[in-house]
Amino acid sequence: MKKQFLTSVAMVAGLFAAGGTAWAHHPFSAEFDSSKTVQLSGTVSKVDWANPHAYLFVDVKDDKSGQTSNWKVELGGPNALTRRGWTQTSIKTGDRVTVNGWQARDGSHFANAKDVKLTNGTDLNAASSYYDNDAKDSKKTNSGH
To answer: What range defines the domain where residue 83 resides?
Structure first.
């Protein structure tokens, strides 16, 4: 009886853990606006190499106001990035980068990256979830990505 109870508790805990991961992962269109393209140039302040998405935090200076804003930039997951040639040290804190992508629907300093360019000319595909839109819109292509 005690063994059955412990097995049941373990199964319920596993369901909650899996549900949390599934809830954390979202479709592109739930958070980002494909019509709000952004190009961000700045200095990487943090790299978070984790599932389900890796993130870059980039300090971007506004040319007009002179103010610096910290942008959170969503990348694909570590496995998807690795398949595209990334390593955990491809981008480090202090690196200067240019990110092309799409801004969050709410207009915050949050973006989904299409690609990340380094000052040495390296162009890294960011494994964006934009291209995982179930191919509903055949006009959206993954040209070279």
So the answer is: 29-132
Residue 15: DSSP 8-state: H
**What tens digit of pLDDT does each residue of 5-35 get?**
444 444 444 434 433 333 445 678 888 999 9
Q: Read off the pTM.
A: 0.73
Contact 45, 58 (CB under 8 A): yes
| Cβ atoms within 10 Å of 78's Cβ, excluding its own | 18
CA neighbor of 105 nearest in space, from 34, 39, 38, 33 = 33
Chain position carrying tokens 């373990």 = 10
Q: Which two tokens stand for residue 38?
A: 């952004």
Give ∠ CA 64-128-33 in degrees, rounded to 5.
Answer: 55
Work out how many domains the chain is built from and give that number: 1
Contact 71, 40 (CB under 8 A): yes
Provide CB contacts within 8 A for 21, sequence distance 6+: 51, 52
Could you say which DSSP state residue 10 is in?
Answer: H
Kindly state whether residue 137 falls inside one of the protein's structural domains.
Answer: no
Q: With CA atoms as reference, report the closest residue to 55 among 1, 22, 91, 26.
A: 91
CATH number at residue 59: 2.40.50.140
- CA-to-CA distance for 36 and 104, rounded, in angstroms? 8
